[in-house]
Specification:
The structure holds 2 protein chains of 2 kinds.
Chain A (H helix, E strand, L loop, with lengths): L1 E5 L3 H7 L4 E8 L2 E6 L18 H4 L3 E9 L5 E5 L7 E6 L1 H15 L5 H8 L1 E6 L26 E5 L3 E6 L2 H9 L4 E2 L3 H17 L10 H6 L6 H6 L7 H4 L7 E9 L4 E8 L20 H20 L9 H5 L6 H9 L3
Parallel strand pairs in A: 2-6, 6-7, 7-8
Antiparallel strand pairs in A: 1-9, 1-10, 2-3, 4-5, 4-12, 8-9, 11-12
Chain B lengths: L3 H13 L6 E5 L8 E5 L20 H12 L8 E5 L1 H12 L8 E6 L9 H7 L5 E6 L4 E6 L2 E6 H4 L2 H4 L11 E3 L12 H7 L3 H13 L6 H5 L23 H5 L11 H14 L9 H5 L7 H15 L27
Parallel strand pairs in B: 1-3, 3-4, 4-8
Antiparallel strand pairs in B: 1-2, 5-6, 6-7
The chains are: A alpha+beta, B alpha/beta.
The structure holds iron/sulfur cluster (5 copies).
Chain lengths: ~350, ~350
């Protein structure tokens, strides 16, 4: 379904969505983040990409699996805690971040269906905003099968046409949301469709960075497992959690029990994000660590995204959002690493 | 002014003569104006060295890294490492010496003077330039920076874009070095704790509100710990299992490992992390500001360490990183130390 929505009607539409919990990018101190908003006026769609991808809403950093404890007669009680049922809308999602969700879907819903992730995913509508200008100097979505107006993972994609939005619904969930604002939306005219196509084409040209011949990288990586390349490239790496925690596609986790009270005995089994750059990520209880140094950890990050995932799912596990580049404290730049891999040897 | 050519000449010379194993310095990054840490062992690559107001990183962290590598190496090459140090970085070297983490001849220090200015705060720079993309930034005479953007060059007063720590800096000239570049210029710092005083001045209620909001944002990526040259412990309280688990660690020992901090990134656990870290850095933090710079969520954690620094100065007349032979703050006492807090 394709529609036009005047920007001045936008708040009226959002008002109609009062049955939903609504997230939007908001500016807190100096950084942008997705937060629950209370009035339509709080929605900010003129924003660079948020520091943390909307992954943090669908796959939160801490997820409670179950609650345990001893009752008065000393029996052990275990109760499953599923995510609260509600309808959620996230506004202002960038195409790379929506595509990232489709990749995580593969991991969490193929052989083993993850009920927690699945539930949140299903009850959340993703409303995107095409990037008329790449929000980060490190955007490179077009190199990895994406684009600033890619539709993957969206229920609705908005494109800013100045005083109007071009609204494209891509799923039934999207149609329902538009129907709630009946009367506010009109059909696009031929010239508006032309305008849309031009904006989309121009946006692609504005991307400053790219990885050429990206398809040469997965086979190349396969030969580079033992290469000294990883030692050289990782010399300055600090083994922090920035590149992975901020990455919209990274999804590794750890499960632990947290006791909140000893008498009466009570606690939670939780899942929290984990990541391959931390030294204890692969530590065995024997004391052996198969990834003992930062070279093997950087290798893991790149291999997972550009080799293992490609082999397993036929997609790059990187959508080119540029976050790991912009936020790495020492300037380790995945574009540069990939270009070097392609030309290595 | 620091002449890059002189720096390169010395670097080439010490590499060629085999005096150092390699040199840790700054090089141009792949994209943008921010330099990256570089490790040079081939004299040919000295060409890549750079020095400009965006050389923010405290490279001494990589000396700690090297020490850890050497410990595991069966045939260690114990030649010194050449390293470029600003004033603040040189104070970190002094702390590492004081704590006997390194020996003086583990390092060959190429000091650089910040003279009248210091290094930039990327966020302030972005604000001042209202989103124009910076291509290059250089030192200029008279406390100015020359900033080249995509649309041209302009001179801006350094004070507009200097990192907070540089405004409050006590060592704009290296305090320990083997060779030094640039002039020693005395700089008056009237209010060395001005930034943290803005927080101290708040009411207790507002202060709690401030920290609650700030620490609630923390995602525990531990970049603040990872970047810190003083955070060198083999076993850190935040790691669930750590290096201290060796093949011969017994099951009992493992079972007795205390979990100090839960993995949940919630306010209470985040506070445990940050307060523990602040306490562990009392009398050790040299205010390089790296922990705050690297935080992806812009959490002003430098305040915590600055407060420790202020208290150490006011209560114990202790200053960090100027004298490698002074007894450390937390492992020594003087008769005149205040004791009115002991009840
Ligand atoms: S990578 Fe592409 S889709 Fe993502 S923010 Fe940048 S331009 Fe938009
Ligand atoms: S690559 Fe950068 S962001 Fe990632 S762990 Fe290393 S230092 Fe941290
Ligand atoms: S690897 Fe980096 S560029 Fe790719 S999706 Fe993750 S954060 Fe974005
Ligand atoms: S760098 Fe920032 S987000 Fe990461 S652990 Fe430190 S304070 Fe938290
Ligand atoms: S605590 Fe922060 S400012 Fe202090 S030495 Fe460590 S990184 Fe530098």
């Amino acid at each position: 379904m394709e529609k036009i929505l005047q920007k001045k009607s936008f708040p009226k539409w959002v008002e109609k969505l009062d049955a939903y919990e609504i997230y939007s990018p908001v500016k807190k101190d100096n950084t942008w983040s997705y937060e629950i908003i209370n009035t339509p006026g709080d929605i900010e769609l003129d924003y660079p990409n948020a520091v943390q991808a909307p992954k943090k809403i669908i796959n939160p950093q801490r997820e409670v699996f179950l609650e345990f404890g001893r009752s008065d007669d000393d029996t052990l009680e275990v109760t499953e805690v599923l995510p609260e049922e509600k309808s959620v809308v996230i506004f202002g999602v960038r195409p790379c971040d929506a595509k990232a969700l489709t990749l995580t879907d593969l991991v969490f819903s193929e052989d083993i269906k993850d009920n927690y992730y699945g539930k949140r995913r299903k009850q959340t509508a993703i409303i995107g905003l095409a990037c008329n200008t790449p929000p980060s100097p490190n955007c490179f979505c077009t190199s990895v099968d994406g684009s600033p107006h890619s539709e993957d993972g969206f229920d609705i994609l908005l494109t800013d046409l100045g005083d109007r939005y071009f609204v494209k619904s891509l799923t039934n969930m999207g149609n329902d949301l538009i129907n709630l604002g009946k009367g506010l939306f009109v059909a696009p005219k031929a010239n508006e469709k032309k305008e849309l196509a031009k904006i989309h084409a121009d946006a692609e040209k504005k991307l400053k960075r790219q990885v050429n011949d990206v398809e040469k990288i997965p086979p190349k990586l396969k030969e580079m497992f033992e290469s000294a390349f990883w030692d050289e490239e990782s010399m300055s790496c600090l083994r922090c959690g920035i590149c992975t925690y901020l990455c919209p596609t990274c999804h590794c986790f750890d499960i632990s029990d947290e006791v909140t009270s000893v008498a009466p005995f009570k606690g939670y089994r939780i899942r929290t994000w984990d990541n391959c750059q931390f030294p204890d990520f692969t530590m065995h209880s024997s004391g052996h660590n198969p990834r003992p140094d930062k070279a093997s950890r950087l290798r893991q990050r790149i291999m997972h995204k550009y080799q293992y995932f490609v082999e397993r799912y036929d997609h790059y596990q990187c959508t080119g959002c540029g976050r790991c580049i912009s936020k790495c404290p020492v300037g380790i730049d995945i574009i540069e690493v990939l270009n070097k891999v392609r030309d290595y040897g | 002014m620091v002449k890059l050519e002189d720096l390169k000449k010395e670097a080439t010379q010490i590499l060629k003569s085999g005096k150092v194993k390699y040199i840790i310095g700054y090089a141009k990054g792949a994209d943008g104006f921010m330099p990256i840490p570089t490790f040079i062992s081939d004299p040919e690559d000295v060409e890549n060295l750079t020095w400009n107001p965006a050389c923010v990183h405290n490279l001494t962290k990589f000396i700690v890294d090297e020490k850890k590598r050497l410990k595991k190496d069966k045939n260690p090459d114990n030649r010194p490492i050449g390293i470029i140090v600003k004033g603040c970085d040189s104070r970190a070297i002094n702390v590492l010496l004081q704590e006997k983490y390194i020996d003086r001849d583990d390092v060959y220090l190429l000091g650089v003077s910040c003279e009248k200015t210091g290094v930039v705060d990327e966020k302030k720079l972005a604000k001042t330039l209202k989103g124009q993309r910076v291509v290059q930034i250089d030192f200029e005479d008279n406390g100015n920076f020359l900033v080249t953007t995509e649309s041209g060059s302009e001179k801006i007063p350094a004070e507009d874009v200097l990192a907070e720590r540089c405004i409050e800096c006590k060592a704009n000239f290296p305090v320990v070095f083997d060779i030094v570049f640039g002039e020693k210029i005395k700089r008056q710092v009237d209010k060395p704790f001005q930034s943290v005083e803005t927080i101290e001045d708040l009411s207790q209620e507002d202060r709690w509100k401030f920290w609650k909001e700030q620490l609630d944002k923390c995602i525990r990526c531990y970049a603040c710990r990872s970047v810190c040259p003083m955070c060198y412990c083999d076993e850190c309280v935040v790691d669930t299992i750590s290096f201290a688990v060796e093949p011969d660690t017994s099951a009992e020992e493992k079972a007795q490992k205390i979990k100090w901090i839960e993995k949940s990134p919630n306010l209470s656990e985040n506070i445990v992390y940050h307060l523990t870290r602040a306490m562990h850095l009392a009398g050790r933090c040299i205010d390089c500001g790296e922990c705050e710079r690297v935080c992806p969520l812009d959490i002003p954690i430098r305040f915590l360490n600055k407060k420790m620094e202020k208290d150490a100065k006011n209560f114990f007349d202790y200053e960090v990183g100027f004298d490698p032979d002074q007894p450390s703050l937390v492992s020594s006492f003087k008769d005149e130390d205040p004791e009115d807090f002991i009840r």
